[in-house]
Amino acid sequence: MAERTAxxxxxxxxxxxxxxxxxSPIWQxxxxxxxxxxxxxxxTFELTGDIERLALPVDVPSRRTDDLWRQTCCEVFIARNDxxxxxxxxxxxxxxxxxxxxxxxxxxVTRPYGVEIEPMRRxxxxxxxxxxxxxxxxxxxxxxxALPWRVGLTSVIEDTAGDKTYWALAHxxxxxxxxxxxxxVLDLNAPEPR
Length: 194
Prior knowledge:
twelve-stranded antiparallel β-sheet; 41% strand; mainly beta
């Protein structure tokens, strides 16, 4: 396989804090997302700011678990190509993850199986925190490998005082609402055959 050059790599997307939020120890959230196969994608969240004031959950063995969004959490929403709903992926700095399917706006929640999350890579310095992984969705219905996926990229940022800010590519509602379909603004294209 040919080595990728810098120009082949996708540009990071900048998330914006919801205007109704307060102060945050983080001043920039950038996400790089890329389809690595017809039904897989790689994602990297990079947070820049005062990382000492960022509330990070303790490391635990990687496993699927619920309620990760209640703390600092990185999220990916993927609209189904058949128009019948969407999927939500939660990635916690703890190493845990969650994956949900919805039949419509916050309706018909399921916990579909057939999802594989490669071990998360987490790096921390005084002013940066990076979380990255690759996700394989080969056995999920409603995602066509040849078509672009409409994606929402989001983050819940909690500081050490317990205050939260909500970051996304787009904020279509008066309050933070990552499930709103108008927030799924990134077209994640299928990779071209080599």
